[in-house]
């Protein structure tokens, strides 16, 4: 019985040691620098933030009425629309800022 427990313990120790990564591994290469066609807004807000804003726009705005193309209105025309719709859709300021950033990025 003791031999079985000792053998099981030894197997566990060897398995744990074998699972460790060697320290000689090279780290993954850094991401490539942004291409020249990336806009300044993309660098500020990031692609994920813009995608989140688009998703919020699709799920909260376009579910009640047709999906308006952001370029249909100017930035100045969008401001009162977004303020009015924020109240109707009951969106907090953070979600509204994300939607606004998405719309602004499309203009």
TrEMBL record:
Residues 1-22 form the signal peptide. It holds the Pfam family Cytochrom_C. Residues 51-68 form the Cytochrome c domain. It comes from the Bacteria. Residues 20-40 are annotated as: Disordered. Keywords: Heme, Iron, Metal-binding, Signal. Residues 26-35 have a biased composition (Pro residues). Transmembrane segments: none annotated. The keyword Transferase does not apply. This is C-type cytochrome. It comes from Flavobacterium ginsenosidimutans.
């Amino acid at each position: 019985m003791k031999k079985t427990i000792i053998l099981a313990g030894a197997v566990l120790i060897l398995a744990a040691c074998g699972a460790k990564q060697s320290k000689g591994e090279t780290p993954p290469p850094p991401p490539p620098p942004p291409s020249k066609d990336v806009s300044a807004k993309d660098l500020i807000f990031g692609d994920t933030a813009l995608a989140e804003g688009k998703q919020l726009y699709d799920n909260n705005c376009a579910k009640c009425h047709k999906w308006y193309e952001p370029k249909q209105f100017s930035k100045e025309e969008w401001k009162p629309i977004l303020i009015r719709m924020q109240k109707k859709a009951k969106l907090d300021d953070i979600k509204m800022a994300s939607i606004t950033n998405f719309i602004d990025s499309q203009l």
